[in-house]
Write a structure and sequence with these properties.
Length: about 120
């Protein structure tokens, strides 16, 4: 039995995060969710996640900046960015800053799982 991937979801849309945590758990992932960049940084510092799924637009925070701070704590932690507004510029900026991929909302859970497995394989 393979070890379940430990995923941190960072999104200020609480309902979406809760749904993702639930749907990932059904598929054998160990998922947790937080709403803010500072909560994400705290969790990354104290827990051993395999991957972070991070919204580009958090309330009052730039997700790409949050990702840069996460990378300062754990340089090799893969990050997949979430974007609700297909902002090509911010997605490309995120990839240049170290994200391994991005996914567009509304999220297709199967597409997300493929990206999570690909990210874990890179680790």
């Amino acid at each position: 039995m393979e070890k379940s991937l430990k995923v941190l979801i960072v999104d200020d849309e609480v309902d979406l995060s809760a749904t993702l945590v639930e749907r990932l758990a059904i598929r054998g992932f160990d998922a947790a969710a937080v709403e803010t960049g500072s909560q994400a940084l705290d969790r990354v510092q104290h827990d051993d996640f395999d991957i972070v799924v991070l919204d580009i637009k958090l309330k009052g925070e730039d997700g790409v900046d949050v990702m840069r701070r996460i990378k300062r704590i754990k340089q090799n932690l893969p990050v997949v960015l979430l974007t609700g507004h297909m902002s090509k510029e911010s997605s490309e900026e995120g990839l240049r800053a170290g994200a391994i991929d991005y996914i567009i909302k509304p999220i297709d859970i199967e597409d997300l799982i493929v990206k999570l497995r690909q990210a874990a394989a890179l680790k």
